[in-house]
Amino acid sequence: MLRQTMMALRIRRALAAAPRRGISSGGVVCSAEVRAALDRRGPVVALESTIITHGMPYPRNLEVARAVEARVRAGGAVPATVAVLDGKLRVGLSDAELERVAVAGDRGAAVKCSRRDLADVASRSANDGALVGATTVAGTAVAAHLAGVEVFATGGIGGVSADLVELGRTPILVVCAGVKSILDVPKTLEVLETQGVAVIGYGTDDLAAFFAARSSDNNKINRAPLRYDDAAGVAGWLAKNAELGLASGAVLAVPNPAPMDGDAIDGAIAAALEAAAARGVSGKDATPFLLAKLEEVTGGASLEANVALVLNNNAARAALRSPS
């Protein structure tokens, strides 16, 4: 944590002179704290909300959401959890609003919001206070870019989805624990390459795989195409990406600090995938089902590993926060 905090300070200085990107939007509402930080070019860290509503059970999800925001603050940044509430795309939530999102997830009143869903859920939630839009990687990337925030993180990415396409057209850095090991890692890498998204291993040549520090396919270790070992290197990438005017983003894969045993997690994943196939679970319902099944199969160990990687990603993200 100390090393990551020091990295945060170096990144902050390295990016201090970078011009703010993003565009203004009347439908995007920043909290007073987030807006004040952006106006003074202070560090703001964007946080997604799907991990709250669909990634963990209540009240663990609320506990982790609060812990994540506290970790960001400890790193000297302002947390900006993103969600759709009352007809607006919100960037930065109060504690009461954070609890509202967590409870909505528990009650099944939260809708996953990718780019395509934002307008629909914003329209419907304007007249339905019980409806909450929980932003995915893609939805959070859109909101962060509109607000002028360049860095955010999540637990992990993966699967051939709108998230990967979004990273190819939005200049955002996603800090995560790599590709979700419950999904097709080589295929995810292939799609990211096709979309022009940089994939960076942080301090390692191996591609982090969510629960595990690395992954393999047919006994071949999956490698990260790029590697940076410190904050200065990542800051240099961010600066040059902006200088070149590239519209694409990047994935910074940070290994899980509490990885599970490779054989154990592989066996649990196989059991979870078999259960999903037997029940016909697919699409947007697949990830929450698989995570819940993994928690069951591993006796809760996968949930604790998930919590550890989320907190670690946010510590790293505080180090790579936007100086907007």
UniProtKB/TrEMBL annotation:
User: Is Hydrolase one of the keywords?
Assistant: yes
Task: Spell out the Pfam families in the cross-references.
Answer: Indigoidine_A
Per the UniProt record, the source organism is Aureococcus anophagefferens (Harmful bloom alga)
User: What are the record keywords, sorted?
Assistant: Glycosidase, Hydrolase, Lyase, Manganese, Metal-binding
Alphabetical list of InterPro entries matching this protein: Indigdn_synthA-like, PsuG
Q: What is this protein called?
A: Pseudouridine-metabolizing bifunctional protein
**Taxonomic lineage of this organism?**
Eukaryota, Sar, Stramenopiles, Ochrophyta, Pelagophyceae
Q: Which domain of life is it from?
A: Eukaryota
